Amino acid sequence: MISELCEPDPAAINAIAALWRACDLTRPWNDPHADIFRAIAHPTAALLIARDPEIVGTVMVGDDGHRGAIYYLAVAPTHQRTGLGRDLLSAAEDHLKTNGCPKLNLVIRAENTAVAAFYKACGYAQEDRMMMAKRLM
Measured between alpha carbons, how far is 83 from 36 in angstroms, rounded to an integer? Predict the structure, then answer.
């Protein structure tokens, strides 16, 4: 049910972008199509998708050789609370483990308490860190 999107498939890319919008994951400063193309092209990244038969879930995963990260964990509203989110998270973790990545970090927007509760239920814990960022583009 979960596979990797390896080739630029316009129909799949449009469906993924629409899913991300439906799950409120996009922001005006992030072009979802560009993010998808970067993930497909990057050697240490993967875009994992779930189909039923249409695309109903995604997770983008990658690592920098030191830490792994996930982005765009999305489950279609019609498939939420079915275990698909946990399955996608597990597939992302397996991808990192297979590539020898020792730790996974993730970022959650502070107002997204439901997502924080999901990750906590999956064994994640908040660490005492300060996240900083700088827009380059």
Answer: 24
pLDDT digits (tens, 9 = 90+) for 73-86: 999 999 999 999 99
For the record, the structure tokens of 71 come out as 């982005």
- Residues 113, 80: contact at Cβ < 8 Å? no
In whole angstroms, what is the distance from residue 87 CA to residue 38 CA?
23
**For residue 117, how far is the Cα from the chain centroid?**
16
Instruction: Compute the distance between CA of residue 90 and CA of residue 104 in angstroms, rounded to an integer.
Output: 12
Does this model's pTM top 0.70? My answer is yes
Q: Are 23 and 16 in contact (CB under 8 A)?
A: no
Q: CA–CA separation, 17 vs 96, rounded Å?
A: 24
Helix H segments across 64-130?
84-98, 113-121
